[in-house]
Amino acid sequence: MASYSTNEFRGGLKVLLDGDPCIILENEFVKPGKGQAFNRVKLRNLMTNRQWERTFKSGESLEAADVVDLEMEYLYTDGEFWHFMKTDGSFEQYPADAKAVSDALKWLKEQDVYTVTLYNGAPLTVTPPNFVELEVVDTDPGMKGDTAQGGTKPATLSTGAVVNVPLFITIGEVLKVDTRSGEYVSRVKSS
Amino acid sequence: MAWVRGFFARRGVMEVETPVLGRYGVTDSNIDSIPASPAPVAAGFAEAWLQTSPEYHMKRLLAAGAGPIYQVARVFRDGESGRRHNPEFSLLEWYRPGFTDTDLMAEVSELVCGWLGCEAPRMMRYRDVFLRFAGVDPFLATDSELAARCEQWLAPGQVQAFSRDDCLDLLMGCQVEPALASAGPVFVTGYPESQAALARVSEQDGLRQAHRFELYVQGVELCNGYWELTDWEEQQQRFAADNQARASAGKPEMPVDKAFLAALQAGVPDCAGVALGLDRLLMLKLGLDDLAGVIAFPADRA
């Protein structure tokens, strides 16, 4: 297995620490006077999402983590696993468990493409695109003349996600939603 | 640079130049020279090193009777790169025959604070900055007490591979230096004997302390100075000890600079000397906190 020395540490590098895959966020070189050099490193544990701070003697190394991000199309769920397929034409499929899908669950739409992070070949996390387009399946009827007031109401989308939308939105419309904040962005013009 | 040259011209200190590419590197266990391999010319040498400091050559000039001298030198230290480090940087180094560390600190203060316009530095002993900011006595604490202090920054078990000086350096870098950032300019003096480098050592308050000083401004280490060791036999022993430390850290041993030892043997006058990082000084003058702002082409774009 490849390993990285402290002088190769960069933001974004994936390494193994205490047996867990981590991504390096920051790496600060500290060296007092004529003394020993250290690297103060901030990492995020990809299993727990917790942030860690660790100090290493410069020149120490960490094993590289076999972590890759791939674009994959969501196919279906069998209730236990959510199945994704590579978009490179290989039709290779990967089952992601509930832990990997986690918060992405409410944005999953069949045939849309997601970023699946593989660790040792198995899905570790699923990240939705920043924006998704989903159909409204339930909301209170819209009221004419309320467009200028700027009020909002909850709307349920086809994936089960509930977002606050302007009062003029009606069932059947397709909305653009920001998955990071869970907020309504705009209506999508039906073509 | 105009400030620096004017400062020394008024004080009758002569500007000198010494080789950037030298026959010997340094033995310091924590400073790595960058090797070069020039073609062996007549009476030359096939193995050479980019200098990490002009110190040995300047001391050879002192031994030859140069009197007070200064130099702005380009120096190289392998593997040092970060917000406050670049593998290649400018060092202002000067030597004052007849000065003690106390005399030289006064001169450093005039040069640095005169240019930055900051207040004169306070004096704090290495022991006192540790007691105050790290809550531990760097001279009297046991090895295991020091190790226990370090554990908060490390993985379990990692500290077992640390020497006493490694622990002190970790505390210095992670706890003391950040605390000094808000303490105003400070001269740290009286280093442990194990960190004397090229400074003479004497007993003060019942403890063996090195006549070494460092100036911190806003937590940035600006310079490192000594009341110089002029005893060639002790110097030879320190070189040997350095190489032992290198070997136990898994680093290659470095050949000892024989010309420098010969100069000490012939007699370097009693003097104090100091090396100051000009890039860091400029960084402070401009109110920046990253050397990338003052070096046109840092290492990653060199």
From TrEMBL, chain A:
<dbReference type="Pfam" id="PF09285">
    <property type="entry name" value="Elong-fact-P_C"/>
</dbReference>
<dbReference type="InterPro" id="IPR013185">
    <property type="entry name" value="Transl_elong_KOW-like"/>
</dbReference>
<dbReference type="Pfam" id="PF01132">
    <property type="entry name" value="EFP"/>
</dbReference>
<dbReference type="InterPro" id="IPR014722">
    <property type="entry name" value="Rib_uL2_dom2"/>
</dbReference>
<dbReference type="GO" id="GO:0003746">
    <property type="term" value="F:translation elongation factor activity"/>
</dbReference>
<feature type="domain" description="Elongation factor P C-terminal">
    <location>
        <begin position="132"/>
        <end position="187"/>
    </location>
</feature>
<dbReference type="InterPro" id="IPR001059">
    <property type="entry name" value="Transl_elong_P/YeiP_cen"/>
</dbReference>
<dbReference type="GO" id="GO:0043043">
    <property type="term" value="P:peptide biosynthetic process"/>
</dbReference>
<dbReference type="Pfam" id="PF08207">
    <property type="entry name" value="EFP_N"/>
</dbReference>
<keyword id="KW-0648">Protein biosynthesis</keyword>
<keyword id="KW-0963">Cytoplasm</keyword>
<dbReference type="InterPro" id="IPR011768">
    <property type="entry name" value="Transl_elongation_fac_P"/>
</dbReference>
<dbReference type="InterPro" id="IPR020599">
    <property type="entry name" value="Transl_elong_fac_P/YeiP"/>
</dbReference>
<dbReference type="InterPro" id="IPR013852">
    <property type="entry name" value="Transl_elong_P/YeiP_CS"/>
</dbReference>
<comment type="similarity">
    <text>Belongs to the elongation factor P family.</text>
</comment>
<dbReference type="InterPro" id="IPR008991">
    <property type="entry name" value="Translation_prot_SH3-like_sf"/>
</dbReference>
<feature type="modified residue" description="N6-(3,6-diaminohexanoyl)-5-hydroxylysine">
    <location>
        <position position="34"/>
    </location>
</feature>
<comment type="pathway">
    <text>Protein biosynthesis; polypeptide chain elongation.</text>
</comment>
<dbReference type="InterPro" id="IPR015365">
    <property type="entry name" value="Elong-fact-P_C"/>
</dbReference>
<protein>
    <recommendedName>
        <fullName>Elongation factor P</fullName>
    </recommendedName>
</protein>
<keyword id="KW-0251">Elongation factor</keyword>
<dbReference type="GO" id="GO:0005829">
    <property type="term" value="C:cytosol"/>
</dbReference>
<feature type="domain" description="Translation elongation factor P/YeiP central">
    <location>
        <begin position="69"/>
        <end position="124"/>
    </location>
</feature>
<comment type="function">
    <text>Involved in peptide bond synthesis. Alleviates ribosome stalling that occurs when 3 or more consecutive Pro residues or the sequence PPG is present in a protein, possibly by augmenting the peptidyl transferase activity of the ribosome. Modification of Lys-34 is required for alleviation.</text>
</comment>
<keyword id="KW-0379">Hydroxylation</keyword>
<dbReference type="InterPro" id="IPR012340">
    <property type="entry name" value="NA-bd_OB-fold"/>
</dbReference>
